[in-house]
Specification:
Blueprint (H helix, E strand, L loop, with lengths): L1 E3 L5 E4 L2 E4 L3 H12 L5 E2 H9 L7 H16 L5 E4 L2 E4 L7 H14 L3 H12 L14 H27 L3 H14 L4 H13 L3 H18 L6 H12 L39 H14 L16 H12 L26 H19 L1
């Protein structure tokens, strides 16, 4: 159930309208609804609804209106007596005004332009015409209607900003031109029109829109455009890059990133079998015993006739296996030696150094 004020005053139940008949009765419901669940005193209700012309029977008439409104709302608890008056007792967002204010607030705070436009559009969709249109003439409600008109205009400006950020400047031009006619002194809307015209390649028209506003302000109000609007005019004259549409931000979840191809370590594969060269292998073992714990990389060179290369690779695979030690998260032998996000442990550094040294032996031999 929702009390609707952004248009004719009525009550909506499951999307169906329940009309409220009578100016004073509608005014009582509107005053209670606009106080957002707060207590409204009997004297305040009489002053707002009847004003200075309140009859001596106003309090009794007010009680009759409250009783009738409870029937429309479907529950006696919908309007409760709370000294010194009454309170509208409905669920959260009991009015379309509260729903619109929430959507506008959430939309303007959203960092995503599409989400911002979606929520503000939903808020604007709650307006069904002029707010409180059928209680016009009640002074306080006329003030509230003006406030709600400004809320709608604020939402329309915010929606235009979101659509400009989405690149919809061409589609916005008809609405912006109408808005500037409806609000001839609104500098923000004129600035939005200038930007939309400039982005559609109509630089001269954008400057002409500024000149019209400057002339209107001078003739009717005796003032000049604000500095912010003059800055937009200057940027258009210079064709400043800041006026161009910003490229959309590309955000992609880590799980959506394509899998990266593994980078090989470029180390030689071990041979399937090896025989002979016992003396040479013993010499290499002696070098390894000292170089294994050396703080720097030991470079060794081998020379000889054909077959020495096989000896070097065979010794390397025998002396230090190709299977990496445990204790490092990335243990795939196809990962790059440098493709880790943290420094490898000591055993890993030794293993990498020795595998690379073995490879150097194979290349230089």
């Amino acid at each position: 159930m929702q009390v609707r004020l952004l248009g004719p005053v009525d009550v909506a139940v499951d999307g169906a309208s329940r009309p409220v008949r009578g100016l004073r009765r509608k005014a009582v419901l509107a005053v209670l609804a606009l106080h957002g669940g707060g207590i409204v005193s009997t004297g305040r209700l009489v002053d707002v609804v009847w004003g200075e012309a309140a009859p001596s029977t106003a309090v009794n008439t007010l009680q009759s209106h409250v009783s009738h409104l409870r029937q429309i709302l479907g529950s006696r608890d919908a309007i409760r007596v709370r000294p010194p008056g009454y309170v509208l007792n409905l669920d959260d967002e009991a009015t379309d005004v509260q729903a619109a204010e929430r959507l506008i607030r959430q939309g303007t705070q959203s960092p995503d332009h599409s989400d911002r436009a979606r929520q503000i559009r939903a808020a604007l969709g709650l307006w069904r015409g002029r707010p409180l249109v059928d209680v016009a003439g009640v002074a306080w409600l006329d003030e509230q209607a003006e406030r709600l008109d400004q809320l709608q205009l604020q939402a329309r400006r915010a929606l235009i900003d979101a659509r400009l950020a989405l690149g919809e400047h061409a589609q916005l031009l008809p609405d912006l031109e109408q808005l500037t006619r409806d609000h001839p002194f609104d500098e923000q809307i004129h600035g939005q029109l200038m930007l939309a015209l400039y982005r559609t390649g109509r630089q001269a028209d954008a400057l002409a829109a500024f000149k019209r506003l400057r002339r209107t302000l001078a003739d009717d109000l005796g003032i000049d455009p604000s500095q912010a609007l003059r800055d937009i005019e200057a940027a258009i004259l210079r064709q400043h890059p800041a006026l161009d549409l910003a490229p959309p931000a590309v955000t992609r979840a880590r799980s959506q990133e394509p899998a990266r191809s593994p980078v090989p370590r470029q180390l030689p594969a071990p041979p399937q079998s090896f025989t002979g060269r016992a003396r040479e292998l013993a010499q290499l073992d002696a070098v390894a015993a000292t170089a294994y714990k050396a703080p720097t990389v030991v470079i060794s060179a081998m020379s000889g006739i054909a077959g020495v290369v096989k000896s070097a690779r065979g010794w390397a695979s025998r002396r230090w296996p190709s299977t990496p030690p445990t204790g490092w998260p990335s243990t795939s032998p196809t990962d790059s030696c440098t493709s880790t996000s943290r420094a490898p442990p000591l055993e890993w550094r030794r293993w990498i150094r020795w595998r690379c040294w073995a490879a150097s032996c194979a290349r230089w031999a």
